Amino acid sequence: MSRARLTRRLAMPPAAVFAVAATALGLAACAPLARISAAELPEGLSARVQQGRLDIEAHRLVVRIENDGDAPVTVERLEVVSPTLAPGMVRGEPFEVGAGDALQIRLPLSASECGTEDGPGSEPPTPEATILLDVETAAGASSGELTADDPHGTIARVANSECLAESVEQVAAIEMPEHLRSTGSGTERRAFIDVQVVPASSGDGSFVIDRVYGTTLLNAEGGVDWPLGTEVTVGGEPITITLPVRPARCDAHAIADDKRGTILPFEIRTGDGREGRLDRSSGDTLKAELYAYYGERCALQ
Q: Is residue 6 part of a domain?
């Protein structure tokens, strides 16, 4: 896997610049250039990475910068670097973190790095994040890095989710229907989500859909989840997976407060060793029809 080379320029007197340059030229023929140590960051700075449920759907990473020091710090530039994420997660717009305060910065997630440098069979990189900072304080400018705290395993989850999706997409497309299929009316109405699985015509690979999990809004007609055990292989015939759905509860607030109730989590194992949940969102039409069905069956309309 490729890793971004991390460098920082620090202000120094001309004589020091000449000395560093001369040393680098003298060593270039026999050794790779070493990273120049960054200036020490102000005391009290720490970083944490996380995601709320809306950030997951919006494909964003939250970087929380805390300043437990005695003076405000202006962050001129922030960059997230991780061996499992492609380079490019940069915030170049300055922001200030007051003494004893904290600020959350949201950045669009870069693509996940799903390969390994040493090829198949090698150990995957450690899913961690380093936060590079250029800061200004009353004492002057400095640059450095913080190893981000990751209490919820956000970086590992992002990497697994993205790489699982990549493995699945190489085998088949999992597509939610445009419309909800239903029979009957009123509280006797019954509905079905017909998921289409369309295998790729060429290549190799396979996966198994072990189950689809119920949501805060929708459950299986005969329980909570939909156990499946459906195997999909490249070159196979298209598959229709029919999910009989019922309201998870009859509560008008469930629709009013809904954020992820029409997003179905598929539990999948791939032939290349990945496993986990892969979400599939309902389109606007299907979402509206699911809400209408929920209200009709629960006699909320």
A: no
